[in-house]
Amino acid sequence: AFFASKLEHESKHCNGKGFQRPGSSAFDRVYTANQNCGHTYPTFLAVLWCAGLLCSQAPAAFAGLMYLFVRQKYFVGYLGERTQSTPGYLFGKRIILFLFLMSVAGILNYYLIFFFGSDFEMHIKTITSAISPLLLIP
């Protein structure tokens, strides 16, 4: 909602109709940042859901909240110079990777239970709970 309101605000302050606004770098930056955030959102939801369902809910929820804050930082950084958005982008990639690895660990644990009868769920939950605070390190 914040991204859409920012886009609407910049759209009203630019001259012209529609999305074809020549010479409006502020609008272009806001529009591009909004599109970038919108394109990554389905991937984020998929890995968040899989990590929470297959591995552990608490670290997945923590990583999900961190990702939302990071995307906010990316968006606000994109409104300034493009180099200001780079830390938010890299931080977001790291969180998506963490959620993806949690999903893979949950799937591997399922197959270990299915084929060998070994359950490593408690070990995986302990490891992910210990690693999730490390996401705060920039």
TrEMBL record:
Cell compartments where the protein resides: Endoplasmic reticulum membrane; Nucleus membrane
Protein name, UniProt field: Arachidonate 5-lipoxygenase-activating protein
TM annotation in the entry: 46-70, 91-113
Membrane topology category: Multi-pass membrane protein
Role summary: Required for leukotriene biosynthesis by ALOX5 (5-lipoxygenase). Anchors ALOX5 to the membrane. Binds arachidonic acid, and could play an essential role in the transfer of arachidonic acid to ALOX5. Binds to MK-886, a compound that blocks the biosynthesis of leukotrienes.
GO biological process: leukotriene biosynthetic process
Gene Ontology MF: a single term: leukotriene-C4 synthase activity
GO cellular component: endoplasmic reticulum membrane; nuclear membrane
Alphabetical UniProt keywords: Endoplasmic reticulum, Leukotriene biosynthesis, Membrane, Nucleus, Transmembrane, Transmembrane helix
InterPro entries found in the cross-reference section: 5_LipOase_AP, MAPEG, MAPEG-like_dom_sf, Membr-assoc_MAPEG
Signal peptide feature range: none
PANTHER family named in the record: ARACHIDONATE 5-LIPOXYGENASE-ACTIVATING PROTEIN, MICROSOMAL GLUTATHIONE S-TRANSFERASE
Presence of the UniProt keyword Plastid in the record: no
Organism annotation: Cathartes aura
Subunit structure: Homotrimer. Interacts with LTC4S and ALOX5.
